[in-house]
């Protein structure tokens, strides 16, 4: 499985960006997809995740501002980021897990990672 992320860039505070992640391989329709970001510490933070059935998870820091969605026909997951803040500046990574439950990916980490895409929010 390969995950190709795109859509990062530079935006002013209060602006919006949409990240996309295209997945290859036949796992897409039965797994959890999500977006992580690299915190200053060693762990990556799960920002948002979505199941194949459309159930979602959001970190408290992005609730009400970010929306995750997926298009199974296009094998693509999106992260719409609105009302961006300077503290959202980070490298964002698309990830996938073969288990259909978000909690499993939260507990064990993803099976697959895409390369990071950089998001920079200026104040």
Helix content: under 10%
Largest sheet: 7 strands, mixed
What is Rg?
Answer: 13 Å
**Average residue-wise pLDDT:** 93
- How many beta-strand segments? 11
- Classify the beta-strand content into a percent band: over 45%
SSE-based structural type: mainly beta
Reading the helices and strands in chain order gives EEEEEEEEEHEE
**Gap from first CA to last CA:** 37 Å
Contiguous helical run count: 1
Q: What are the low-pLDDT stretches, counting only 5+ consecutive residues below 50? A: none
What shape does the CA trace take? globular
Describe this structure in words.
With 123 residues, the chain is mainly β. The chain has one helix at residues 102-108, and strands at 2-6, 9-12, 17-24, 32-38, 44-50, 56-58, 66-71, 76-81, 90-97, 112-113, 117-122. It contains one helix and eleven strands. Strand 5 and strand 6 form a beta hairpin. It is globular and about 40 Å long.
